[in-house]
Give the backbone structure.
Amino acid sequence: MTSPSPSVPSPIVACPRHPAVETALTCGRCETPICPQCMVHSPGGIRCPDCAQMKRLPMYTMGFSHIARAVAGGVAVALPLGFLGALILPPTGRSSFFMLFFALFMGTGAGTLVAEAITRASGGKRGPVMIGVAVAALIAAWGVRVVLSGASWEVAVRDLVGFAIVGFGIAAASNRLR
Ligand SMILES: [Zn+2]
Ligand SMILES: [Zn+2]
């Protein structure tokens, strides 16, 4: 593809999207005329809205195989996390300020790990579906923690620390997968 030499400026034409606006700017990718109202800045230069969309969409478009791999990645990390939770912070039904503070760190760490695993397993997918997978994985980790610790469900449902870990985990994971 030959680009026009700098000595020959682009002709001034009406923007196809805004016929009232004259412009000499063109999309760096498809060379459609664009004006300051519709141009989109990208790392590679200015783009028309269509080309900017094309560049942005792939991480939000996904097939069943991406979702299946994301679920596998999330579960692979959630199970050991649940095991770790049962080991170092089993549900007791009591919660101190210190434990809730600790839950902030554990939850944020767990959410970050789950999000990272999902991103890698799915090949960099993001968006509401991936956040849903992360939420499911963190709830699964909570279940594993309860079962492995041998705590009764009556204790588990009163365990504020557990809910705090899951809550902070969901916040951290959705922040990364947004
Ligand atoms: Zn374009
Ligand atoms: Zn325009």
